[in-house]
Amino acid sequence: MKWVNKFCRETWIEVNLNALEKNLRAIRRHIPKKTKIMAVVKANAYGHGSVGVARHALKAGASALAVAILEEAIVLRKAGITAPILVLGFTPLKCVKEAAVWNVQLSAFQVEWVKEAQKILEKAGSSKLLGIHINVDTGMGRLGVRLQDELLAIVEALTTSRSLIWKGIFTHFSTADEPDTALTRLQHNLFIRLLRFLEQEGFQLPTVHMSNTAAAIAFPEFSADMVRIGIGIYGLYPSEHIKQLDLVTLIPVLSLKARLSYVKVMLTEPLTISYGATYIANLGEVIATVPIGYADGYSRALSNRGFVLHRGRRVPIAGRVTMDQLMVSLGERKGKQGDEVVIYGRQNKAEITVDEVAEMLDTINYEVVATLSHRIPRLFIKDGRVVEVSHYMGPVKKIRKISKKKRRKNKRKKNRNAGMTKRIEVEE
Ligand SMILES: *Cc1c(COP(=O)(O)O)cnc(C)c1O
Question: Spans of biased composition, class Basic residues (predicted)?
Fold first, then answer.
């Protein structure tokens, strides 16, 4: 990876866009043809890098995007993404105008909120329109309208408003990833009953959506107009159960890698490693330092427990994970400064999966990737080439500015062998 030479700390994430495309295609094939895909890119696209993922997911067949908070949507808009974006979380009224300005759709579930939002926009001027998806709580118990009467009041407010546009109605499953399907079916029935009620009241339904990745895989018949796919895009299964169903093949998109920053043979006392001196090396043991720590989202709970891959084999973490660095024991084996290690992903025939790390940490794969911090640069790779880089600190070495003449020449060349030239973009 030549790009890594531009970073002053050689730790990076590789996002495999070919895998991302395959995952989207695999899910696409599994759900009804008419169902659209909303790519869920909240939390920096589950740690993968939201702008790069959003851009490529849209290219690979997603029709819309979802985020958790308005600011995440604005980041995408500022990067030039024009597809519909829905904010899934609660947005306070003070931010409603901003949502309209950026043409970002919001979720609503309270009639007072809807009426206030309408007032705010009308005061701001007639050009400000805001798309709204109604969130219906059928058993998630997080956000959403629960009562039929209140749902009706919201719909009436939306359909008579000049500033709000009723764009969608959705619910969210709480156990779609589990073998017991009873609650998911109950939630589905409740939702369908409410939708029928609205139709009987004479309303024409906008986009209906309910399924996350687990439901899209386990209940493709619930897909409706759109499915909201998060974890599946990233090639991870929502649960072991969903994986065992073996209905859709997903390929992990993310790899986490680094280059050893120091290698030493322990020849002198003291032989202690890291804070707390919880690891004592043997005389002659080879200890290597990896430039990643808990501030990067590599959990401190992996101290003396986790592994990385070095020269195609697992080497154990020695001592505590520190904020920015950790040590591994190479045992009696050789290694040198600059050697590539894989923290999550494959190296030769060896692999460390996000799933196994999640299990070690007694959590879920979602958390392991979503907590990878902004400090790590993301390289987006297609057909073995880096096509986009996102690095919030930016590279120290400036990317060579391409002259107009050269750009034209490149464009001609690009047209000649369409899709073969690489496009490098650096996000600020
Ligand atoms: C996060 C989220 C999703 C995506 O869930 P996955 O399990 O990652 O597919 C869908 N809908 C809502 C409301 C969410 O919060």
Answer: 402-416
What is the end-to-end Cα distance of the chain in Å, rounded?
21
pTM listed for this prediction: 0.92
Q: Mean pLDDT by 10-residue block, N- to C-terminus, for the chain (428 residues)?
A: 87 98 98 98 98 97 98 97 98 97 97 97 85 98 97 98 97 98 98 98 98 98 98 98 98 98 98 98 98 98 98 98 98 96 98 98 98 97 95 66 60 50 39
Segments of 11-99 assigned E as strands: 11-16, 36-40, 64-67, 85-87
Q: Is residue 6 annotated as part of the catalytic site, yes or no? A: no
140 is in an annotated binding site: no
Which architecture, in CATH terms, is 254-398? Answer: Beta Barrel (2.40)
For residue 292, what are the CA distances in angstroms to 7, 186, 325, 361, 398?
A: 14, 45, 4, 17, 24
Domain 31-245 CATH class label:
alpha beta
Cα 88 to averaged position of ligand 1 atoms, centre (Å):
9
